[in-house]
Amino acid sequence: MQFVRKTFFLLIMLIMLCQSALAADFSKLVILHTNDTHGYDEYGDGHNGMAVIASLKEKLESDGYQVLLLDAGDAIQDNNLVNFSKGKSAIQFMNAAGYDAATLGNHEFDYGQDILRERMSEALFPYVAANIRIEASGKNFIRPYTIVQKNDLKIGILGLTTPQTITSTSPKNVRGLAFLQGRELWQSASLAAKELREQGCDLVIALGHLGSIEDGTESSAEAVLSHTRGIDILIDGHDHQVKNKYVGDTLLAETGCYTNNIGCIVQENGKWVEKMVAFGEYTAENPKVKLLMQTARGEVSANLGQVIGKSLVTLDGSRAPGVRTMETNSGDFCADAVLWQAAQANVLNGTVDAAICNGGGIRSGIAPGDITRSMLYSMNPYNNQLCVVKITGSKLLEILEAATAYTPEAMGSFPQVAGISYTVNTAVAYSKGEQYPNSGYYAPALPGSRVTIESVGNRPFQPEAVYSIAMIDFLASGGDTYAGLCLPGAKLDYQSIGYLDAEALENYLTEKLHGVIGIEYAEPQSRITIR
């Protein structure tokens, strides 16, 4: 009898849930969404900006719609507009625009966990992430999901953050945290969706800062949806792609980046449909939000607007093809600046042989004309400390091989160099060895099979030699694919030199180049060969 009663109760609950889902009226719901805004929050130059987003939300609401405004991560870091306040201004813009929820991108961690918690406490909306754990306790780093009520609609929103965060921000910024990946990531998404359904949600949305092009394909947005049930919409980010497709029964959407598009999802004929608003299609700006940005811009300009030099050439800051796929003149400039600054510091009692800059750290180029400090801090926006490490030639070969594992495909780790000449043979497949500890990347099983180093410090390369290499602390502490530098005995010596990467660019420009980037940087200088 008890079994019958229990079965009957469960059947009634199931019927009620089904009736609730059937009764849900989504005809007046509009889901606006953003991802990878990276502080490009002002209107103009292809960016819709936060004032336009806020105005569009108000317009839809005045027309009788219920509007849900969501963000899929990487909102508080990159552009100097938000960097100057360590993301505080970005949160102010999002608060004023009326966001309902957001998830954490990898770059939300770039200022460290203490600052991140400050930013989240300032937000008038919840941050959610179901796959980040505190290693010591196993507890969630932040809430896995939230529920938002829009009239009679109960909407569940869960968050998923890329496991590549452990290597795409400085490792010190995520110390003590575990980012579930692969099967564990799928399980965390499934559990959150299940709990939201059990709490009577009419709609379940995942905010996924996952991407489709990460090396760990088991943690891509598509992989999650292929192994998870109960998610109606996944709003993605991280890879800066435009997505509008179905994976099974779930709409997978993404706007690209930098507010170039505003995501706009509605339901038509019982199916969720993405109707993005491209730049220029809607131009009205919310005056309150616009004033906030003008105030923030004034503060930034007062500090970084000074003209400190000029360029006679265009330095290419493109991602791909560009700094993440091949040698570029901007990569040469940045690496030269790091090498020069390290040499001036005269650390480790000797000559600095070479420098490595990861292409993913070069975020913009420079056009011909005046150069302000702001431009250089936009080029290298992460406030990384410079250091010099002593490593063997064999270790140098290993890290260059790992950092070009998927070349000619784009990699944030791609080594732009000074004082090094090397060749990547893309006809040879990358041979994976053991997975690096605390990393999603794999050591090369056969260092030298794809990469050949011709010279270091203007001398023929020797695997047994010891070289002094300048780089940012992000790489020296195992960021991106450079976890090989954190293995026991990898670094024979290490010294911070007391300068930030952007400071090195400024000092190199003003002191070494006497304020002029000349024709010597018109083209890449043949340090790297891709064949």
Quick tags:
alpha/beta, single chain, 27% strand, 7-stranded mixed sheet, 15 helices, disordered N terminus, 531 residues, globular, 6-stranded mixed sheet
**What is the count of DSSP helices, taking H or I runs of 4+ residues?**
15
**pLDDT < 50 stretches:** 1-21
How many β strands by DSSP?
29
What is the gyration radius calculated from CA atoms?
25 Å
Plain-language structure description:
The chain has 531 residues and is an alpha/beta fold. 30% of the residues lie in helices and 27% in strands. The chain is built from 15 helices and 29 strands. Strands 1, 2, 3, 4, 13, 14 and 15 form a seven-stranded mixed β-sheet that branches. The protein is globular and about 75 Å long. The model is unreliable at 1-21 (pLDDT under 50).
Short synopsis of the structure:
With 531 residues, this protein is α/β, with parallel strands linked by helices. It has 15 helices and 29 strands. Strand 24 (451-456) and strand 25 form a beta hairpin.
SSE topology sketch:
Layout: H1 2-23, E1 29-34, H2 49-62, E2 66-71, H3 80-83, H4 88-97, E3 101-103, H5 113-122, E4 127-128, E5 132-134, E6 145-150, E7 153-161, H6 165-168, E8 177-179, H7 182-198, E9 203-209, H8 221-226, E10 233-236, E11 242-247, E12 250-255, E13 261-268, E14 271-274, E15 277-278, H9 287-304, E16 307-311, H10 319-323, H11 329-345, E17 354-358, E18 369-372, H12 373-379, E19 385-392, H13 393-403, E20 415-418, E21 420-424, E22 432-435, E23 442-444, E24 451-456, E25 459-460, E26 466-472, H14 473-476, E27 493-500, H15 501-512, E28 516-517, E29 528-530
Parallel strand pairs: 1-2, 2-3, 3-4, 7-9, 9-10, 10-12, 16-28, 17-26, 21-29
Antiparallel strand pairs: 1-13, 5-8, 6-7, 11-12, 13-14, 13-15, 16-18, 17-20, 19-26, 19-27, 21-24, 22-23, 24-25
Helix pairs in contact: 2-4, 4-9, 9-12, 11-15, 12-15
